[in-house]
Write a structure and sequence with these properties.
The complex is a heterodimer of chains A (about 190) and B (about 260). Chain A is α/β, with parallel strands linked by helices. Chain A contains six helices and eight strands; from the N terminus they run E-E-E-H-E-E-H-H-H-E-H-E-H-E. Chain A has one domain: P-loop containing nucleotide triphosphate hydrolases (Rossmann fold). In chain A, helix 2 runs parallel beside helix 4. The radius of gyration of chain A is 17 Å and the shape is globular. Chain B contains ten helices and no strands. Chain B has about 260 residues and is mostly helical. Chain B has one domain: ABC transporter involved in vitamin B12 uptake, BtuC, CATH 1.10.3470.10. In chain B, helix 2 crosses helix 7 and helix 4 crosses helix 5. The chains are: A alpha/beta (about 190), B mainly alpha (about 260). Chains A and B meet through strand 5 and helix 2 of A and helix 6, helix 8 and helix 9 of B.
């Protein structure tokens, strides 16, 4: 099967190269974890795939005309906005069904009146459940309790079973082992 | 007693603007651009007076200058953030206004009228312009609402789906600038600013949904306007000042 995403000796960065060369092939229906110590550029790799960071060498190939969803560690600026969870999900086309009960019953509340963990999971769900062939997640378990991590793991498997390819950056080893089909470790660049 | 028939056209001109400006203000607040409520009216005032100085149509001068500022902001976006851009526009507009009024005696009265408002002089042309402009702005906001919200909350979302973002940003900037210029010609700089700033600010604090926030902003804007118009007529006081004080009162009660 032709991969949805292929990285060939990719070296990415912002002003200067910040990652070691990375090779990766991601097929539809597959969940791959990307781990490694802080500062090796895991988030930068995701940013490069999403066209936010620079590619210094190597290349990124993805299937033509695919829809990409990107979750970053930046929290959507909802504080001070009159916006409910239901309205947020409608914006990205994410479904309201499948949400954990502790969130489903708060869908009509204003987002900045939810707890940090509830708000994080809704913001993540809006990206994760939006129609997409390639889903990129950056530290999705931040701010989540054990119930949230379990629900996220289950839903990732559901999305993969429906045909999406998923690349997850995480430092949470237990989550990566439970959620991902395989895992790559990004090494520090040679001159670091 | 005032002759109420005489004030019908000005009343409806202002009412239409009082419905449209708070909705526009909600999207400017969403984008952290509430300073636009001061910068574009100042630029429009400068354009209007500049046109008088050059012997051109004041209305077209104001609209053209504001439209140019809106388009220019997008061109400068890589070098200047939105709030810095608006601060510079505000300074440029105010400085130009002062310079023109200092050097062109006929422009001085118009300068005062633009800042204090000249709603009572609104006629059929002003009413029709306000109605057409407001219908255009409200329709465009309704059409682009989801994309504007997405752009603020998930800046990469549309781009990653192959959608080009800059035409939407450019259209919003130009439309906002033109709408604020149009409102400035009738309501004046400060009344326009108050309608763009106060009702959305209160609605953002009080409501739980975007749709509800828009509705409350438009309701508060139009309610404050009707009350201020009636009070200004009955007490024979300048409309802009009564309107400003009433909105401060609304803020203290509702916030």
């Amino acid at each position: 099967m032709k991969p949805v995403l292929q990285l060939e000796a990719l070296v990415a960065g912002w002003q200067q190269a910040a990652t070691a060369a990375l090779d990766l092939s991601l097929a539809a229906g597959e969940i791959v974890g990307l781990t490694g110590p802080n500062g090796v550029g895991k988030s930068t790799v995701l940013a490069a795939i999403a066209g936010r960071a620079r590619v210094f060498s190597g290349r990124i190939v993805h299937a033509p005309a695919i829809r990409i969803s990107l979750q970053t560690q930046e929290v959507p600026p909802v504080v001070g906005l009159p916006l409910s969870g239901r309205e947020l999900l409608a914006l990205t086309g994410a479904a309201t069904t499948g949400l954990p009960s502790w969130l489903a019953e708060r869908l009509d509340q204003r987002l900045d009146r939810l707890s940090g963990g509830q708000r994080h999971y809704l913001a993540l769900w809006a990206v994760l459940d939006a129609p997409a062939e390639l889903i990129l997640l950056d530290e999705p378990t931040n701010n989540l309790d054990a119930a949230g991590v379990r629900h996220l793991t289950t839903h990732l498997h559901e999305r993969a079973a429906a045909g999406s390819a998923i690349l997850v950056v995480s430092h949470d080893t237990a989550f990566v082992q439970a959620a991902c089909d395989r895992c790559l470790t990004l090494e520090a660049p040679a001159d670091a | 007693m005032p002759d109420f028939e005489l004030f019908l056209l000005p009343f409806f001109t202002g009412l239409v603007l009082a419905l449209m400006l708070p909705a526009l203000g909600a999207y400017l607040r969403l984008r952290n651009e509430w300073l636009a409520a001061l910068s574009y009216p100042h630029v429009a005032a400068a354009g209007t007076l500049g046109a008088v100085f050059l012997g051109l149509s004041p209305l077209l001068g104001g609209l053209a200058m504001a439209g140019l500022a809106g388009a220019g902001k997008r061109l400068l976006a890589r070098r200047l953030s939105g709030d810095v851009c608006h601060a510079l526009f505000l300074l440029a507009g105010w400085s130009t206004t002062v310079l023109v009024t200092a050097n062109q005696p006929t422009a001085e009265r118009l300068g005062h009228a633009l800042f204090d408002g000249q709603l009572y002089f609104a006629g059929v042309v002003e009413l029709l312009s306000a109605v057409l402009g407001s219908v255009l702005v409200l329709s465009a906001l309704r059409f682009a609402s989801s994309r504007l919200l997405l752009l603020r909350l998930y800046p990469d979302f549309s781009r990653l789906r192959g959608l080009t973002v800059w035409p939407l940003e450019l259209a919003f900037d130009v439309l906002a600038a033109l709408a604020l210029a149009l409102a400035t010609m009738s309501l004046g700089v400060m009344a326009t600013f108050s309608l763009v700033f106060v009702p959305p600010w209160l609605a953002f604090r009080r409501m739980g949904t975007w749709r509800g926030g828009l509705g409350l902003a438009m309701l508060l804007g139009s309610l404050a306007y009707v009350l201020a118009f009636a009070l200004a007529l009955l007490l024979d006081q300048p409309f802009g000042a009564v309107f400003g004080l009433l909105q401060v009162l609304f803020s203290l009660i509702i916030a």
